[in-house]
Amino acid sequence: xxxxxxxxxxxxxxxxxxxxxxxxxxxxxxxxxxxxxxxxxxxxxxxxxxxxxxxxxxxxxxxxxxxxxxxxxxxxxxxxxxxxxxxxxxxxxxxxxxxxxxxxxxxxxxxxxxxxxxxxxxxxxxxxxxxxxxxxxxxxxxxxxxxxxxxxxxxxxxxxxxxxxxxxxxxxxxxxxxxxxxxxxxxxxxxxxxxxxxxxxxxxxxxxxxxxxxxxxxxxxxxxxxxxxxxxxxxxxxxxxxxxxxxxxxxxxxxxxxxxxxxxxxxxxxxxxxxxxxxxxxxxxxxxxxxxxxxxxxxxxxxxxxxxxxxxxxxxxxxxxxxxxxxxxxxxxxxxxxxxxxxxxxxxxx
Length: 350
Description:
about 0% strand; single chain; mainly alpha; about 350 residues; globular
């Protein structure tokens, strides 16, 4: 799984924001104080203000210790931050937060079984758990938790057909489940649910309350996978109209543009992404490396020898960083590509 796919997979289950649409019925958390803290913290995540978001969700847990949301969103911040900076997840802290969220979600279901919210939070818990297991290499556990997450989201929509936020998780599951078994879809008992999954994501995008940007992020990844690059770019640009510095959607837009062959547009997006990385107060050397290399690969043929060699030099300077163990091999591969490109630039100039 490449960097873009990993980033988009996580946000498909965790990035949520309040963004009302038209006169559609709004599915809000029924406690205004919780809704307010959620809205603030989610906005901070989308603005990549992870420390502030963590503080907001810790306050939510402190003020409402029996509600699952504060614990689950603290876990979401840990997961999102680790992905953004290509770091290892703090598994012990993450797992303890999920356990607290799951226990409270199950209590909510027992106490208010006819309400969709408990099933929604339990589905969210299992979705986070599924992704974390995949990152650890536990693919069977990831698949099992993913199925359970979708089942709970479906239960939420059975209880309330207007609970559009739950459809983001269902749609994501439907698409990727069918995608992984597409070689069997010619059989009469194996259903291809990819288009249905996309439709559910589009429903959430249009009519959801909290999960519009979750649906957008998942839809970008899916449309890129399906080869529908122009549509993927359009969705990413809608998100970037509100959050222009968001690296998740910048990666998605750059990938869609690059794969569609629109190199000039892709280079411009990688330039925006690079500036977001460099302007961050926290170093992000691996993603800087990937971004600089991708940008150079797209533009070097139209630039001068001196410009290209200077760009290669900026890439190779990043070798002085001490990459963590899980990044060493990946970084080394990128530096090999940079050195091959440097030799090609030199030959082309002779």
